[in-house]
Amino acid sequence: MTQSNTFQFQQLFARHSADMPSWGANKRGKYDFAIAYPDPASLPLTDLLASLQTALHEEGQNLALYLPSAGYLPLREFLAAKLARDRNIQVTADDLVLTAGAGQALHMVIETLIDPGDVVLTEDFTYSGTLYQMRRFRANVRGVACDHEGLLPDALEAMIKKVKAEGRQPKLIYVVPTFQNPKGGTMSLERRKALLAFAQKYNLPILEDDCYVDLRYDGQDLPSLRALDDTGLVIYVGSFSKTIAPGMRLGYMTASRELLARALPAKSGGAVNLFAAFAVHRYAVNHLASHIEEITDIQRAKRDAMVAGLETHFAGAATWTKPEGGLSLWVTLPAGIDVAALRPKILEIYDVGYSPGNNFAPDSISGKNCLRLSFGYNTPAEIQEGMGRLAEALRCEGGLA
């Protein structure tokens, strides 16, 4: 069929539809620092299979049913107990919704709250998946300056006042306070309290993305914003992607029941996959705590290998963060080096993948001399090799001193 005879949808697309950023599989480098994958060798495949077999034996016939949209009740009960124990978040199973990864939870909140043009406040660099969803619903995203302790209170209040001076009211604050994605920092307790105080003062809900909190390698746990809040303005999102496997596609959210009641209709497809929920529930009850201990030891060694590689190959030429947890760190190169433009060539020739800093910028421009490096997938030896190859590539192709 010739192009002239092909039906055209261009004039029919809904205003909220978005272009697909890529089609099919993207090329991955041998040294794959581009995506925050977990360690593939430590995926608990045998225990997941045994857990699924147990669940199918006990209640497999329930696969014939369509569950309520909130999802498999025993897994929600497990999460309520885990959140109470680990995060001092006091909720019941009825306050929790299972989602297809944290991404669906973020989508539900954004679709429920954001109208085109609404102002959303984020950290100066933030998770690209959330930015994508915000842009899809035509949010006006404003980044707020941060330091190693998180959002700067003066900058946050100044931004709120600036928006209000424009005759607008910010609609939402989105933050990743623990092992922030992409920079890796952790918001201090004082900053958490200050953020809540501003949110309450200006009547602003907070969307707290806590997906990395279980992956702590150093330091002390800090309370979640949700646990510190007594007004119901914090929406809390978590995931099993970093502690079990992203391929399971299981996340969750908790919020006021008023919000959940409006957000559930935005949850396309009904309940999460019961097959996956069976496996994750039985596995989590019996093995998750010990598995988290195992993978934090593994990922700590990988983080240290990446930091050592940076010290060896980038000392004096760049600066970087050393996160207390999570799966990524942030590298800042001299101004003028455009890692976004260099990325395709470095991936193709040097076999090294990374995420350019502007992918995480609300304005899509800032941070072209920065990159997020994720250390979860490769072995420590591969990570050190990859740091050498990345330094060579940037010196040859980008002018790094």
Which percent bin holds the helix content?
25-40%
Shape estimate = globular
Beta content comes to 5-15%
Q: Strand arrangement, largest sheet?
A: 2-10-9-8-7-3-4
Q: Biggest sheet, in brief?
A: 7 strands, mixed
Mean pLDDT: 94
In terms of quaternary structure, what is this?
Answer: single chain
Report on this structure:
The chain has 401 residues and is α/β, with parallel strands linked by helices. α3 packs parallel to α4. The protein has helices at 45-59, 73-87, 101-113, 128-136, 153-165, 189-201, 225-228, 257-263, 274-314, 339-350, 380-397; strands at 31-32, 96-99, 119-123, 140-144, 146-147, 150-151, 172-175, 206-209, 234-239, 251-254, 319-320, 328-332, 352-353, 355-356, 370-374. The protein contains eleven helices and 15 strands. The longest helix is centred in the last third of the chain and has 41 residues, at 274-314. The protein starts with 30 loop residues before the first strand and ends with a helix. The chain has a seven-stranded mixed beta sheet with strand order 2-10-9-8-7-3-4, sandwiched between helices.
